[in-house]
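Retry 2 of 3 after timeout on previous attempt. Resubmitting structure tokens to design endpoint.
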């Protein structure tokens, strides 16, 4: 299944081949013309070995249907977003497998400065059979005109100017790019600001020879942690494969995405009265409570496309995901840019030191939580299971629940089921990208955490048995 909720993604060759990629380009061209967006599109790509091939197939599909293609070259994903806010061309396609294994690739699509996702992707999928009349082999053999565009340079200049206050930053910093594309923009910015970072895996390599490029998984930070201890460095920053996710660590602590949101929100509140800050359903109750002290928190669906759209709708200052997608609408354009976020982190550290940030987080009420855990289910059953679970948790039908089930304060169903208990919560939601249920649990004690998790998973098992999923 390559047509997903937030983007198009799959294994190159077996799922993403020249014919399907050409058709995707052709249909995207039709959509661009239908909504009367500018009849041009930027295309950039990450370091994966097959990205240039996919660029060729995609560009030919777009061109065959009357859309002019501008080649951004190998870039971080945020540069593709940035380009649509800095020129008359409001459409971009980033060829990237993001944090997936090397055999994957895909497309993150922006049309008219907005994410192309959800129902739009499914509509595109439904139109694939209508292109049977095209002689795709002949069209792929045709030469097309592609114009080079150096928006990367504009992006670098923009961030250098924006973070001029960080020139000659004194603290030692170790940065792990994971052989992704972050360094293509990051290195020139660091050099221009005279920030002498310790560099790990800055060379883009789509085979990712050193470790998997997903900093939301703590085991992928082990190289960075070891380096920091060996060289007595207390600030570590890591990026994912296409530079839209970030992780911050000290020698003793790994900051979660929602903890970064608290730190950023407190800083933003110094210049914006009552800022609106958006989190997703996996975020800690601490985040929502702390933000409500200085502004207004808003809980929404998981997913970078969902959060970008809601950010603009509410004119919020910031949105965040647990995974390290951070969206700044304060001083920026409202898309997830881990490179930009890195420099906002350095601004915080310049004011308070990494020790101060860690102290701020450690002073929050103590909570116990599980990591994001996944339960394998079938693609067809995942949403059915969540709906069945929702019915079992209906407060108007208390007899639905087992006799000793913990007291429920409320059920939030904006994205799966987040059950709020007296001293914590349990979340079960269907992944929009893979055939799994995603769970997360939080409580004020380890005993309660175990109680909430056990109760929720036993109820899920009952539901699975009944619908044979």
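Retry 2 succeeded. Sequence:
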């Amino acid at each position: 299944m390559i047509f997903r909720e937030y983007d198009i993604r799959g294994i190159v060759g077996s799922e993403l081949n020249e014919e399907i990629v050409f058709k995707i380009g052709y249909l995207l061209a039709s959509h661009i013309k239908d909504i009367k967006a500018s009849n041009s599109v930027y295309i950039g790509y990450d370091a994966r070995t097959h990205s240039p091939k996919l660029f060729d197939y995609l560009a030919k599909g777009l061109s065959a249907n009357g859309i002019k293609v501008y080649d951004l070259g190998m870039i971080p994903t945020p540069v593709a977003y940035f380009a649509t806010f800095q020129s008359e061309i409001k459409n971009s396609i980033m060829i990237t497998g993001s944090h997936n294994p090397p055999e994957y690739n895909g497309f993150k699509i922006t049309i008219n400065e907005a994410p192309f996702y959800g129902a739009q992707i499914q509509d595109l999928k439904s139109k694939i059979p209508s292109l049977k009349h095209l002689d795709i082999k002949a069209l792929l053999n045709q030469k097309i005109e592609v114009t080079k565009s150096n928006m990367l340079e504009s992006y670098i200049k923009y961030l250098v100017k924006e973070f001029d206050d960080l020139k000659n930053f004194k603290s030692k910093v170790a940065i792990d790019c994971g052989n992704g594309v972050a360094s293509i923009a990051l290195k020139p910015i660091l050099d221009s600001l005279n920030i002498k970072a310790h560099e790990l895996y800055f060379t883009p390599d789509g085979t990712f020879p050193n470790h998997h490029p997903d900093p939301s998984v703590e085991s992928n930070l082990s190289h960075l942690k070891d380096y920091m201890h060996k060289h007595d460095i207390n600030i570590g920053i890591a990026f994912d494969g296409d530079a839209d996710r970030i992780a911050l660590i000290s020698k003793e602590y790994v900051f979660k995405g929602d903890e970064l949101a608290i730190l950023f929100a407190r800083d933003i509140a110094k210049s914006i009265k009552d800022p609106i800050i958006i989190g997703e359903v996996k975020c800690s109750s601490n985040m929502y409570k702390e933000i409500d002290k200085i502004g207004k928190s808003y809980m929404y669906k998981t997913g970078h496309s969902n959060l970008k759209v809601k950010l603009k709708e509410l004119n919020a200052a910031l949105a965040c995901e647990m995974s390290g997608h951070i969206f700044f609408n304060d001083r920026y354009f409202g898309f997830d840019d881990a490179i930009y976020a890195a420099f906002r982190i350095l601004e915080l550290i310049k004011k308070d030191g990494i020790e101060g940030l860690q102290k701020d987080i450690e002073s929050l009420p103590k909570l116990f939580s599980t990591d994001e855990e996944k339960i394998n289910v079938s693609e067809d059953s995942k949403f059915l299971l969540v709906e069945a679970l929702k019915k079992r948790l209906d407060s108007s039908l208390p007899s639905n629940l087992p006799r000793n089930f913990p007291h429920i304060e409320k059920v939030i169903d904006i994205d799966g089921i987040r059950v709020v208990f007296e001293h914590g919560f349990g979340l079960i939601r269907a992944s929009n990208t893979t055939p799994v249920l995603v769970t997360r649990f939080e409580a004020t004690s380890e005993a309660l955490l175990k109680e909430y998790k056990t109760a929720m998973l036993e109820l899920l098992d009952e539901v699975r048995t009944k619908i044979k999923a």
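Attempt log closed. Residues 16 and 32 are 22 Å apart (CA to CA).
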